[in-house]
Each structure stands twice: as structure tokens, then as C-alpha cells.
Amino acid sequence: MKKLFIVMILGMASTSVIAASTQKTTNYSCDDGGYSFELTRINSNKVKIVDGAGNTATLKAQESASGEKYVSNQYTLSLKGDMGMLVYKDKSNKKSYPHNDCKLQ
Hints:
Blueprint: H1 2-22, E1 24-30, E2 35-41, E3 46-51, E4 56-62, E5 68-71, E6 75-80, E7 83-90, E8 95-104
Antiparallel strand pairs: 1-2, 1-8, 2-3, 3-4, 4-5, 5-6, 6-7, 7-8
């Protein structure tokens, strides 16, 4: 029974290492350097963003006619090649704030 338990623990640990190693973080700079964020690909359906102020969000993939599109309650991220646009949606005043010309760094 001890051997089975140890094998289960080792299996779980190796799965965590594999999952962590598949996450890729890239940096984007927008608005001529006025705004930046890190993009981490969690899996094929989710990404996480962290901006320069420390705001974080997890976005889910959504169908797009061209490029990639990820959406959360507060953000929409559109990527095509090395370029993108991140739009912040403020729920309090119902305004959108786009960060244009985001370039992969």
C-alpha cells in the first residue's frame, strides 16, 4: 500500500511539473510604451494577463474570424501574429478603454 501511495504522489508531482513547463509567458507593450502586460498561456483555452500595475485576469478563448481572441468580464484581448489589442471594460461607468498597437517584446 505504501508503494502505491508513493507512486501516486510521484505521478501527481510530475503532472504538475509538466503543466508548469508548458506555460509560456510573453510580454507586450502597447500605446507606444505607455502600457504593458505579461501574457501567460495556461492551456489551449485560457490565458492570464498581468499588467504593469499588477492587475490580473484570466481570459477564455473565443472564436475569431482572424487571429486569436480571449475574453473575460473586464478584458478582451485580440492577437494576430506579433500584434494585438487589449480592451479594458470598466463596469462602474460602462466605458471601454482600448490599449492599441500592442507589440510582442
